[in-house]
Amino acid sequence: MSFWTENQFVVTGGAGFFGRAVVRALEQRGAVNVFVPRKAEYDLRDRDQILRLLDDARPSVIIHMAAVVGGIGANRAHPASFFYDNLMMGTQLMHEAWLAGVKKFVTIGTVCAYPKFTPVPFHEESLWDGYPEETNAPYGLAKKMLLVQGQAYRQEYGFNSIYLLPTNLYGVGDNFDLETSHVIPALIRKFVEAKTRGDKQVVAWGTGSPTREFLYVDDAGEGVALATERYDGDEPVNLGSGQEVSIRQLTELVAELVGFDGEVVWDSSKPDGQPRRALDTSRAEQLFGFKAKTPFREGLKNVVEWYLQQQGQLV
After folding, report:
1. Which domains does the chain have, with CATH numbers?
2. 3-state secondary structure of 165
3. pTM for this structure?
4. Distance from CA of residue 176 to its chain's centroid?
5. How far is CA 82 from CA 37, 79, 128, 142, 185, in A?
6. Residue 169 reports pLDDT greater than 60
């Protein structure tokens, strides 16, 4: 308990979908001093505002989650801002945290940092074996540079920086904006709206053949909390469920849970993204005891029911 009661925590991005789950996990473990900087108050691309944050919060532990994120469409439309904003937020914050004497820096990376054709399941040792999938490479590489920075600062300065690689997340409270959302909330919204209108078909992007791994956001929050407390190593660590699901399987399951009985039409002119994505999760279990708990169908059912309630529809 002393780890949680004696440290001052800053969680950048702590007001976001994933960040809220991490803050909940910290507080459930007894953290009493958790500061969540809001984007409107602290622009982490600006060094002066980073210095003001560090002065205001006086953190001993920083969990850096703030990021500019989105699905394939958003990554294709804004590659430059996805690269610049994510790189500048992270690299300046880590540097100033080291100068300020912060005891531990936890970087939340991304599965998008892996090479496009990484053998499945993804092992952390494969991280540098090729170039990321093109549609999200600027984002993935910007986040990947923080692994390099953290390892360099550890080597030269003895700075305790760790790096976590969560897979695709989903859960209650996700972003359902079709312009910026990821695949699960986008599909749920599409099928709910199609059912409401009485449509006979729904158009889905790509071929349906790619695979993804999905981790329930509350499980991911627990993984970050465990690593923050127990892991002090220099190697990157995957956070995942260990279950590979094809986009076609996912789409059919969402349609079933929503109750849409029309046709799914695949628009193969749209990009598929990375061909396969599934993580080896053994390192997280060995190093800090993390193992995902929420079965995929159960988690997905929770999200569908929550979204229907938000739309004022009976579950």
Report:
1. 2-172+212-244+277-294 (3.40.50.720)
2. strand
3. 0.92
4. 15
5. 20, 5, 20, 8, 21
6. yes
